[in-house]
């Protein structure tokens, strides 16, 4: 090694998918541009989920709702739940990274100053 201090970088599950719906990961220290962008996307996704839940409550309280409207609502709720699940998995993995880390989730590498998105 070159004597430089080693920082632990972790894989972060990103709040979007790659080609063919495969998960995307970011290897980094959590302080870079892509991490900040991911934080923003997660915030939007969680906010939209909250809005959707409010809309669902209103729609379900209306006795005149149609099957088509319920199908549309169920489709949007399913999409939102997938996004919120991905956010929860990502945040849970990052919490684990601060304590006990399962194998292959943390990589010790010299700090390079940049982050690299990775599709698996």
Detailed description of the structure:
By secondary structure, the protein is an alpha+beta fold. 50% of the residues lie in helices and 22% in strands. α1 runs antiparallel to α2 (67-97). The radius of gyration is 19 Å and the shape is elongated. 10% of the residues are buried.
Treating each run of at least 4 consecutive H or I residues as one helix, how many helices?
2
Cα separation of the termini: 28 Å
Q: What is the approximate shape? A: elongated
User: What is Rg?
Assistant: 19 Å
Mean pLDDT: 82
- Spell out the helices and strands N to C: EEHHEE
Specify the helix fraction band.
Answer: 40-55%
The chain-level structural class is alpha+beta
Strand segment count: 4
- The share of residues in extended strands comes to 15-25%
Strand order in the sheet with the most strands:
3-1-2-4
Uncertain segments: 1-6, 104-115
For the biggest sheet, the summary is: 4 strands, antiparallel
Layout of SSEs?
Blueprint: E1 6-17, E2 23-28, H1 33-61, H2 67-97, E3 106-110, E4 116-119
Antiparallel strand pairs: 1-2, 1-3, 2-4
Helix pairs in contact: 1-2
Quick summary of this structure?
The chain is α+β, with helices and mostly antiparallel strands. It has helices spanning 33-61, 67-97; strands spanning 6-17, 23-28, 106-110, 116-119. Strands 3-1-2-4 form a four-stranded antiparallel beta sheet.
């Amino acid at each position: 090694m070159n004597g430089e201090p080693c920082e632990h970088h972790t894989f972060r599950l990103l709040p979007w998918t790659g080609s063919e719906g495969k998960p995307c990961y970011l290897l980094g220290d959590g302080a870079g541009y892509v991490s900040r962008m991911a934080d923003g996307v997660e915030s939007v996704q969680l906010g939209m989920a909250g809005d959707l839940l409010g809309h669902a409550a209103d729609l379900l309280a209306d006795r005149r709702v149609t099957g088509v409207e319920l199908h549309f609502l169920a489709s949007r709720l399913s999409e939102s739940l997938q996004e919120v699940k991905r956010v929860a998995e990502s945040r849970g993995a990052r919490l684990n990274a601060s304590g006990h880390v399962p194998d292959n989730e943390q990589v010790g590498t010299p700090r390079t100053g940049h982050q690299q998105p990775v599709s698996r």
